[in-house]
Fold each of these.
Amino acid sequence: MNRTQGLRLYLWSALLLACSVVHATSQAVGEVSLAVGTSRLHGSNGVVTPVRGVPVHVGDRIDTGDGGHVHIRFVDGAFVSVRPGSRLLVESYFVDKDLPANNAIKFRLEEGVARSISGRATEAARDRFRLNTPIAAIGVRGTDFVTLAEKNRVAVTVNSGEVVLARLGAACAAEAYGPCVNGQSLTYGRDRSGEMLELRRDQNSPRVVPLSGARTPDQVAPSRSEEPKAAAAEAKGDAETETLLSRLASTVPSPADRPRALVWGRWSWAQQLPFDQLTVPVAEAREGRHVTVGSSYYALFREGSRPETPLPTSHGEVQFVLRDAQVHYSKAGTVQPAAVNGGWLRIDFGKREFSTGLTLHNILTGQSAFTVAGSVRDDGIFAVNQSDTQLAGAVTFDSKEAGYFFEKSAGGGTFSGVTRWGR
């Protein structure tokens, strides 16, 4: 056994004894169910083009251009449609299953049109949902509504339930949650058909205006057929809400339900780590997959066997998004939890090259940068073995997933972990 193999064996052994799993980013609160036209998702890992299945996190911002539509299904069954020419920020999405009163959901529609259908978290804590626009705050009463946010105007139409519209200011702070109910707010329900709510910057209070002749949200940015149909003219209670949520939930499989082409497996002698959400037993990982790279305790299994022809070069350069990671820091016989605070991975299939970087953090070392580049084999496997850095991974044959394990020397110790990437 050479020095590198011995170090790897020691590190992975230590990982089994004392290590915590730390997500690369905050836990996903939803995922993209539809993306058409021009759109961008701005997150902690940079800017990516959203596609179906891409996770959405707190702090992410969705921008859409002409013809761009992005649909998001959240963990509690809620649904949001970001229509063309819009910018929506997910400011908060906290769901407390044990104490639903602590739920806290907040969006900021900076411009454009968005449709929101409340989920279970809002149903359980209706005073903890807020959608802010540049001039107004919108609270709900279990609602399906569409909002148009412009620099000097906000307009809201309601498909079911009720909304509360209020001007932002001293009596309605943007930092707060829930409806702002005061002398200048206005509550509006779906029973008033043919009308909508409107607030202009030069007005103190919202007003109800007729749809006829008005600049409505649906006129500015019409919906696509993939959006859920609006509920009946009046809400029919919890049973109807559950039916709507069930229909939304059935449109997009959850991340756990979707089969993965790349899976981290742990050998039979390796016990599952606390909070480990990356690895499964090898017997499960190898179902329909073959091993690519690994250590004495973990192995990366890939769907299918090596094809007769090499990876195509037509994919060009692909930018991957860091989905999750687990990492620890080992020094002088002690193991400390560590974190991945962001990262990037680029693979140029034409040149058969890759480059990647991670921002690692530990209480003993502070922040440490990990960057490495190298070549990719025709079968999609890549590896680098340097004096202070080791990495080995694989990419799927359709170029949609990648994963690697790594070691990085820093501060007299070593970071060690595994990653999973997607597009």
Amino acid sequence: MPDGAKPRRRPGRPPIHLSVSLNLVMPSQFYPQFPNEGTLPGEKRLMLAVLADAVDILLKGDGRDGRSRRLLLETAQWIRADDDGPFSFVNVCETLGLNPSCLRRGLLARAAAGHIRLVRR
């Protein structure tokens, strides 16, 4: 390498020491994923994200390996539970103005239609 020439950097992510100092921001932090999401208070946005993640896991999960199977079962258990905790399925739905029993029926029926077995063996 000639004197004064910079070493060639490989394409891809910046080195970790640069990543931390850049304070990288994800596009989803600027652009809402759902309509009117930007107008919701922070706790409702968090609840919406929790619910969206659960729906995503339930409808897209295949349960073929042990980890995804466990995630599917835990998600189905969360949807079925009638807990009263702040982030229970029922409380999340009611806070977001959704009917929990209707959404529960639809999600579990959709999972069953996709031949996903949501009970422990």
Amino acid sequence: MKSPFYFIVRPLDGKRYNNTKQIGGVDFITSSSEEDYKFSNRMAVVVETPLNYTGKIKTGDILLVHHNVFKYYNDMKGRQKSGKSFFMNDLFFVDNEQFFLYKKDSEWISHDRYCFVKPISKTKSIIKKRGNEEPLVGEMYYPNHYLIEQGVTKGARVAFQPDSEYEFYVEGQKLYRMYDHQITLIL
């Protein structure tokens, strides 16, 4: 079974939500809200690639997907429904715009126009800064092909546009997903 346009995926570990934490051998639910996007599973295993797809992603690779892919929602009558990505059983459709990284041979690779920047701790300054991170500055963690061609490599310190930070946790590391055009400077 193949789709003409979509990747067919299933949630990693078979769970739509990552809302449990094990403490002392007991699983505790950390959030019971289906609307809370922070606990939506963002890892998907590729079951099938699109028909006539010739890219690098293969069956069994892991995709980092949009938070709405696996989420439930409630319709106007309060009935639990699956989102538009749901296909059947534990299978979901994912289009080219719904995933941002893919894992091949234990290495994460940026997809399409997306890149990932690691926030850095704030530096001492005479200007007051909120939070614990340097605003609008970070370390390039997963550059895409276009940025690499422009000389932006992994580990480069970069500046980015305001409000471009879309937070993800990839293997325990906090990263901001952004588009390549939102990177403004190499520092």
Amino acid sequence: MGEWTSEELSKIETAEELKIASMRRDGTLRKTVTIWVVRCGDQLYVRSVNGPNGAWFRGAQKRHRGHIRPGGVRKDVSFAAVDPGGVEEEIDAAYRAKYRRYPTSLVDAVLTPRARAATLELMPDDQ
């Protein structure tokens, strides 16, 4: 696994949305889904508003690899589960701050226990 460059982190942090696709067993990518992404320090996080049952999330859990396209960045990534009780509050705060101009009901959808249970860290996959 590689590290994000400061330019990548900056572009992804300021991107409104992220296009994400998990990898299939044969190495091809599944259908792209548009989701929100937040940055906490030098880490990037995404959540499934549908929780662990979300289709894109299930695909990410099977292969742990995929591809993202936010803010002009195109990058292969690895997905890592986030330990409950670790950085959840920081991630919640990042979602509230970044997406505060949206209706509260939309932002609250990524702050539920169900969405929190489907939090993944994105890591550059330089394989």
